[in-house]
């Protein structure tokens, strides 16, 4: 896998990009192969440049779907300051485990534990949800999604995304540098949003792919059976286009 010189040559200057978001681009992600085996690490900036993505640079990520006691899903609208996919609606929290011992795992159980720890960290950082309200044992890991999605001509995503469900009551205070808006929606409301012209083109590509393939089946299982065991697919990696 050859990385381009773009990572070094492209300047994330504060005249173009938000300074806080520029700093987050220094975080170090876990670089993996298509079987989710760790190969090393690279900065968030390097991992999100389309020139490197086109050379098959792949990293580990997670998506949290947080539900309240009425089985409503908490959505977020990404802040306009975000470098990738600004202003788009998506699931509760989407981010990356860091290439640090507590969040990196070489086998599936340790990788799942790492992404759960990362999820707790990011729920606090993005939404102000205290760690005490989202205990690690309350998260359910369902499966992994492999997808690629350009944001613009320069930036994009190429991830194996761990899907985490959690149903707990929480308090939240969104970080305005990360999140523009939040709202809880029922399954019926979410389905209506997907056919509403007002939301056309306003969902992140990974959220749209997950909704079109798996989400409503998982959500219905949560509502009707109060149990996700029947829809878990822990070993497989689903490649979505």
Automatic annotation (TrEMBL):
GO CC, one annotated term: cytoplasm
Record keywords, A-Z: Isomerase, Isoprene biosynthesis, Lipid biosynthesis, Lipid metabolism, Magnesium, Metal-binding, Steroid biosynthesis
Coiled coil regions in record: none
GO biological process, one term: isopentenyl diphosphate biosynthetic process
EC number: 5.3.3.2
Pathway(s) it belongs to: Isoprenoid biosynthesis; dimethylallyl diphosphate biosynthesis; dimethylallyl diphosphate from isopentenyl diphosphate: step 1/1
InterPro entries listed in its UniProt record: IsopentenylPP_isomerase_typ1 (IPR011876), NUDIX_hydrolase-like_dom_sf (IPR015797), NUDIX_hydrolase_dom (IPR000086)
Keyword check for Metal-binding: yes
Catalytic activities: isopentenyl diphosphate = dimethylallyl diphosphate
EC main group: isomerase
Signal peptide positions (record): none
Cofactors (names): Mg(2+)
Keyword Membrane: no
Residues of the Nudix hydrolase domain: 57-209
Any GO molecular function: isopentenyl-diphosphate delta-isomerase activity
Family recorded in the similarity comment: Belongs to the IPP isomerase type 1 family.
Name of protein: isopentenyl-diphosphate Delta-isomerase
Taxonomic source organism: Saitoella complicata (strain BCRC 22490 / CBS 7301 / JCM 7358 / NBRC 10748 / NRRL Y-17804)
């Amino acid at each position: 896998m050859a990385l381009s010189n773009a990572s070094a040559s492209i300047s994330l200057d504060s005249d173009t990009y938000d300074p806080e978001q520029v700093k987050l681009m220094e975080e170090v992600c876990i670089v993996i192969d298509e079987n989710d085996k760790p190969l090393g690490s690279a900065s968030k900036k390097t991992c999100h440049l389309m020139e490197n993505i086109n050379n098959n640079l792949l990293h580990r990520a997670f998506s949290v779907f947080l539900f309240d006691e009425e089985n409503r899903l908490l959505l977020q609208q990404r802040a306009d300051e975000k470098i990738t996919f600004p202003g788009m609606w998506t699931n509760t929290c989407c981010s990356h485990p860091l290439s640090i011992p507590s969040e990196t795992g070489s086998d599936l159980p340790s990788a799942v534990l790492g992404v759960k720890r990362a999820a707790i960290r990011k729920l606090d950082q993005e939404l102000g949800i205290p760690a005490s309200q989202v205990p690690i044992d309350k998260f359910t890991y369902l499966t992994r999604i492999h997808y690629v999605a350009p944001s613009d001509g320069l930036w994009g995503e190429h991830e194996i995304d761990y899907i985490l469900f959690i149903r707990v009551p929480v308090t939240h205070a969104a970080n305005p540098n990360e999140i523009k808006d939040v709202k809880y929606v029922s399954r019926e409301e979410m389905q209506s949003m997907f056919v509403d012209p007002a939301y056309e083109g306003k969902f992140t590509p990974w959220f749209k792919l997950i909704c079109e393939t798996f989400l409503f089946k998982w959500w219905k299982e949560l509502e009707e059976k109060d149990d996700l065991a029947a829809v878990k697919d822990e070993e497989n990696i689903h490649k979505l286009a």
